[in-house]
Design brief:
By secondary structure, the chain is of the alpha/beta class. The chain has twelve helices and twelve strands. Helices cover 36% and strands 19% of the residues.
């Protein structure tokens, strides 16, 4: 498998670009110029960086080529949701979703090519994890969303790292990506407008809490006890609830941010009224929010979505115990809505 080149200019932050440009005998302000042209002006080649001399553009083209992601497939839903299958420099592909909301647009980005977590309801990990995404490849997904919105004068307001992959299993690149996206010369996104999803990697949750960044943590819970959660998520073997919940409490305490617990509802598996009461008991008194998720069926998995009447009853039971609980509005259901489906179908078509 061909991996992205080590001279990946898109993964260099502003300080690293200073070092690169000084190596060419250029002043530090050239790095600021390049950072802005890469992320604010969508430069696809150094020829676009018109504030530079031709010799400098040619030298950088040879030493640090710009390798942009390209859209292999685009699906647009009736509600304005745009799902992209982006091709990377080594031929791998990842999904990115641009979602419309009353407050503006969010973008859901992938953090890995494939996923190693093995959750039994998800399409993302059916073929395992192939590799990590670089910080630049994460940032490219935001840039592509910005490029789509540019003609309308809109911008990405929120970034949800909730696509293909386990973000906290790609910790260094995730952190670098968020810092680069936050930079005023790039997208200047507030850390409060980032949501990082995890299946429950406890050591990395603690590490993220220690960073001091006010991001939102979204934990894929999906069950209020270990017995049910083990059926759905192999990660529960290593990090059962007795470890996971205290780590989430610590994150909330250190950041002052409430933790979102994602709860995907599967018929006759985790959607009973008894389990709703158990969930309410588990989370009572905690700084948290419960996000109930109607399951988007994946052909390769045998589960059945819970009826909406069951979802609403589950919600009412949790809310009656004083816990914030909402039902996720599903956008783009008609365009391979479940995470990983578009990539999976593309792989299947290529193998025929």
């Amino acid at each position: 498998m061909v991996m992205p080149s080590a001279n990946d200019v898109l993964s260099l932050d502003a300080d690293q670009l200073v070092h690169v440009l000084q190596g060419f005998g250029e002043p530090a302000f050239r790095a600021r110029q390049l950072f802005e042209w890469l992320w604010r002006h969508d430069a696809s080649s150094y020829q676009d960086v018109t504030v530079w001399s031709r010799p400098l553009r040619e030298r950088m083209s040879q030493a640090w080529p710009i390798r942009r992601a390209v859209a292999v497939q685009t699906q647009v839903g009736v509600d304005g949701t745009t799902k992209l299958l982006l091709g990377l420099s080594d031929g791998q592909r990842v999904e990115t979703v641009l979602l419309p909301h009353p407050y503006g647009y969010s973008v859901c980005v992938s953090s890995q090519v494939g996923c190693a977590m093995g959750c039994t309801f998800c399409a993302s990990g059916l073929n395992g994890r192939i590799r990590q995404l670089s910080a630049g490849e994460l940032l490219e997904q935001v840039r592509y969303a910005e490029m789509i919105l540019k003609p309308s004068g809109q911008h990405v307001r929120r970034v949800d790292v909730m696509g293909i992959g386990e973000p906290l299993d790609n910790y260094a690149n995730l952190l670098k990506f968020m810092r680069m996206a936050h930079h005023e010369a790039a997208f200047h996104l507030s850390y409060r407008h980032f949501t990082v999803s995890t299946s429950g990697l406890v050591p990395a949750i603690t590490q993220l809490a220690n960073e001091g960044l006010p991001v939102t943590l979204a934990v894929s819970l999906h069950a209020p006890n270990d017995e049910v959660r083990r059926r759905l998520m192999p990660v529960n073997q290593a990090y059962p609830l007795a470890k996971l919940i205290p780590a989430c409490d610590d994150f909330a305490r250190r950041t002052g941010r409430r933790v979102t617990f994602e709860y995907l509802l599967l018929k006759d598996v985790n959607d009973s009224q008894q389990l709703a009461h158990e969930l309410a008991g588990l989370l009572a008194g905690r700084l948290c929010h419960v996000n109930l998720i109607p399951w988007n069926p994946v052909a390769e998995h045998d589960w059945t979505p819970s009826p909406m009447s069951t979802v609403r009853t589950f919600q009412r039971i949790v809310q009656d115990q004083g816990i914030s609980c909402t039902i996720r509005k599903e956008l783009g259901q008609e365009i391979d809505a479940a995470c990983g489906q578009l990539r999976l179908r593309e792989e299947e078509s290529l193998s025929l």
